[in-house]
Amino acid sequence: MQTSTPVLILPGWQNSGPAHWQSLWERAHGYQRVEQHDWMQPLRGDWIARLEDVLLGCSEPAVLVAHSLGCIQAAAWASHSGNTGRVKAALLVAPPDTERDDVRQMLSSWSPVPLQKLPFKALVLASSNDPFCSPARGRQFADAWGADFTDAGERGHINADSGLGDWPDAHAQLLRLMAG
Q1: Half-sphere CA count of 119, side-chain side, radius 13 A
Q2: Among residues 66, 176, 73, 171, which one has the least CA distance to residue 124?
Q3: Nearest to 140 by CA among 152, 130, 126, 121
Q4: Cα–Cα–Cα angle for 112, 9, 120, nearest 5°?
């Protein structure tokens, strides 16, 4: 299904591979991936600037489809940008807890997690057994961001390894989010 609303794919650390639901949605629905200069050593400021540049190029407010570090990117961008009206809504899947010691060691520029209310509608989908974020912390993010929360069950990090394929249930939730 093509839509006139720009849908921007925000992958996490190391990008989303060809079997990841984000990549499948991009190919099937014509969504646009926000490419980063460095997927392996992501710098928060660089990623925020790149999102700002892409959003400034959109002809109308976009919908963000973020996975993992892309969720923190969206929240960090929203806490600093003067152009938050360029986002209509966000689907935030598997946000990592970048304040945990093990994650902070890998992604040092991504702590602290921005906990300001998002100025657009958002839905957080989190797994009950995500190795990078506890269910309680995922709910805390959703509450702080003013987002709705859905427990996706035991899906690991909700990536290609989770065996979701093109994950039609989540795409249906995206379409509902877009419809408002």
Answers
A1: 13
A2: 66
A3: 126
A4: 60
Terminal Cα distance for the chain, rounded: 17
Tokens of 170: 């989540």
pLDDT digits (tens, 9 = 90+) for 66-100: 999 999 999 999 999 999 999 999 999 999 999 99
Domain that holds residue 46: 7-179
Domain-embedded: residue 2: no
Please count the structural domains in the chain. Answer: 1
Residue with tokens 């991936």: 33
Tell me the residue type at 51: L
Q: Is 128 inside a domain boundary?
A: yes
Give the CATH number of the domain where residue 106 resides.
3.40.50.1820
pTM of the model as a whole: 0.96
